[in-house]
Design brief:
about 260 residues; alpha/beta; six-stranded mixed sheet
């Protein structure tokens, strides 16, 4: 009798972040994987690489999008807010309702593209209150929670910290730290924002430091997960670095690459 071949027990996980409206590539992001993990920022409000794409230029046109990107890139946030207020004042419709309607249109397409199973958490530009309406039975939404995938424990913490950009899902440092604490010790720590390390939070194209989390950095040093996975910084100075026993990985700007980061064991 021939020996029974050994069963292939490899687990393959694909990880994406900063999808920003890229439903076309998202539809194939789970191909060949046992599961897809999404670290948030599904919404495309304004594409800094192509100012014609997103909710803002759809409402106000390319020229106004060029101007607000110019102001924000120069860190002239007060001027950018005033410029935006003048534009919204001329719309003649409730701002929140208008944005929500546009976001709903994007969410309908993006959540439909998720494969089964998908494990997802929120980014700083997402609107968590809408997610239950669009997440199907194959999508598990986690925030300050844990789940076992292929014998390893994954912890998820969504959202971002307060910034002058005032994106929809920014929370206080204390609330964010509490979610990190609730997750506890895990094999893989999945967040939208990176730990507060200069090389991981500096965006080389925007030429500014994004906000990372000190509480996340402390948790990585204390609990020593195998991996810390995140996105948020689109063009980081360092995409990968080790903090003690933990491999910290920016999984990439999926909106522009269309490729997931792969984790196998």
């Amino acid at each position: 009798m021939s020996p029974t071949p050994a069963r292939n027990t490899t687990t393959r996980i694909h990880v994406v972040s900063d999808v920003h409206g890229n439903a076309r590539d998202l539809a194939g992001a789970g191909d060949g994987a046992d599961a897809l993990i999404c670290l948030g920022d599904l919404v495309l409000f304004l594409d800094y690489a192509d100012h014609s794409r997103g909710i803002f230029p759809d409402l106000f046109g390319r020229a106004n999008a060029d101007r607000i990107v110019e102001l924000r890139t120069a860190r002239r946030f007060a001027e950018a807010r005033e410029f935006g207020k003048r534009l919204w004042a001329d719309v003649g419709e409730d701002r929140a309702a208008l944005i929500e309607r546009a976001v709903r249109g994007q969410y309908a397409e993006l959540f439909a593209a998720f494969p089964t199973p998908t494990y997802a958490t929120y980014g700083n530009v997402d609107m968590p209150a809408l997610w239950p309406e669009y997440a199907g039975p194959g999508t598990t939404v986690l925030d300050g929670e844990r789940v076992e995938i292929g014998g390893r424990v994954f912890g998820f913490v969504g959202g971002g910290l307060r910034t002058p950009m005032r994106t929809p899902y920014e929370i206080d440092d204390e609330e964010y730290a509490a979610k990190i604490e609730a997750v506890g010790e895990v094999d893989v720590l999945c967040t939208h924002i990176p730990p507060e390390v200069p090389e991981l939070v500096y965006d080389t194209v925007a030429r500014r430091f994004e906000r990372g989390s000190r509480a996340l950095l402390d948790a990585i040093r204390r609990t020593r997960p195998r991996y810390a996975l995140f996105g948020h910084v689109h063009q980081p100075l360092a995409r990968r670095m080790r903090i003690g026993a933990t491999e910290c990985v920016n999984v990439g700007h999926f909106a522009s690459t269309g490729r997931p980061w792969v984790l196998e064991w």
